[in-house]
Specification:
NAD, zinc, 2 domains, Quinone Oxidoreductase, Chain A, domain 1, NAD(P)-bd_dom_sf, single chain, S-(Hydroxymethyl)mycothiol dehydrogenase, 18 strands, Rossmann fold, binds zinc ion
Length: 362
């Protein structure tokens, strides 16, 4: 039987979000219905509301979530009712050219549930944010979007691994290949940048330089493992990073802002043959201009990090285990827990940089 539950809907461009009754169908083949325990408020949800991602209103928002599998459809063997899972937005296909070459974290054909959830009042089909839609009591996803992890973890902590925190940690350990003794600089210390700092520490980086314009954010970055802080409003970040690295620049520079100016800073704050990782998300009108001779002459690697180049089935359980052992402080990313009706106000606080993450708990 299809179920009616509460969900947070973005009805139209820039309109305030509101709670509506939504219809969640029974899971079809390869699908699962998940009872949500917690879901973080991410910038991407705000971008959906603002119409910056697509025009397919109404959206069912929320995508950084953990929950308990309630029911599964035909042919689902990886998860079962009762499993505690983190939802991911890249369920890999196993058959595309990336998957077949053994690089499933690049999967070019990820999938979501085939059936659609609808608005109870009008029957209108909903577009779930990143194929998840977890600001809801329950949601319908592809079973491959569920990754089972140790249920000992707090749900509000676990959910954050589903998006921003994984993107940041993965930018450092998967894309940037940060290793023991490396020097690392992170430009932009919001949730993703701070996670990159935590990832660099986990990987054994010797020096971790946090760069931001907000002193409050730099303080949080320090708690998560930054060894050096640069306020880029007060000093030139390229000069500062070079000074802190013997005049050379950092081995790995992670750009977690997504702007041409900060990317250029990342490019020049990097040592010869070093790596730049772009994990900040730019907007369509942005253009990058760099002397091609410098791109050639400085060598190394310029990489982009999609979802931290993560493989949920490999990375989620491992990072939750490290957290439970006290080696990765995922709890530091949760600024506050809120109720389902607090999402609109949480957007406001996020926009002003007052929180790292607000998390809706159920
Ligand atoms: Zn694939
Ligand atoms: Zn997100």
């Amino acid at each position: 039987m299809a179920q009616e539950v509460r969900g947070v809907i973005a009805p139209g461009k820039d309109e305030p979000v509101r709670i509506e009754t939504i219809v969640v169908p029974d899971p079809g083949p390869g699908e699962a219905v998940v009872s949500i325990r917690a879901c973080g408020v991410c910038h991407t949800d705000l971008h959906y509301k603002q119409g910056g991602i697509s025009e397919d209103f109404p959206f069912l928002l929320g995508h950084e979530a953990s929950g308990i599998v309630e029911s599964v459809g035909e042919g689902v063997t990886d998860v079962a009712p009762g499993d505690f899972v983190i939802l991911n937005w890249r369920a890999v296909c196993g058959q595309c050219r990336a998957c077949l070459r053994g690089r499933p974290w690049y999967c070019f054909d990820t999938h979501n549930a085939k059936q659609r959830m609808t608005l109870a009042s009008t029957g209108q089909e909903l577009s779930p944010a990143l194929g998840i839609g977890a600001f809801a009591d329950k949601t319908l996803v592809a079973a491959g979007q569920c990754t089972k992890v140790d249920p000992a973890v707090a749900p509000e902590v676990a959910g954050l691994l589903g998006c921003g925190v994984m993107a940041g940690i993965g930018a450092a350990i998967n894309t940037g290949n940060v290793g023991r003794g490396d020097t690392v600089a992170v430009i932009g210390c919001g949730g993703v940048g701070d996670a990159a700092i935590a990832g660099a520490r986990l990987a054994g980086a010797a020096k971790i330089i946090a760069v931001d314009i907000d002193p409050r954010k730099l303080e949080t970055a320090k708690k998560l493992g930054a060894t050096h802080l640069v306020n880029s409003r007060e000093s030139d970040p390229v000069e500062a990073v070079r000074e802190m690295t013997g005049g050379f620049g950092a081995d790995v520079v992670i750009e977690a802002v997504g702007r041409p100016e900060t990317y250029t800073q990342a490019f020049y704050a990097r040592d010869l043959a070093g790596t730049v990782v772009l994990v900040g998300v730019p907007t369509p009108e942005m253009k990058l201009e760099l002397p091609l001779l410098d791109v050639f002459g400085r060598g190394g690697a310029l990489k982009s990090s999609w979802y931290g180049d993560c493989l949920p089935s490999r990375d989620f359980p491992m990072l939750i285990d490290l957290h439970l052992q006290g080696r990765l402080d995922l709890g530091a990313f949760v600024t506050e827990t809120i109720a389902l009706d607090g999402v609109e106000e949480a957007f406001e606080r996020m926009h002003h940089g007052d929180v790292l993450r607000s998390v809706v708990t159920f």
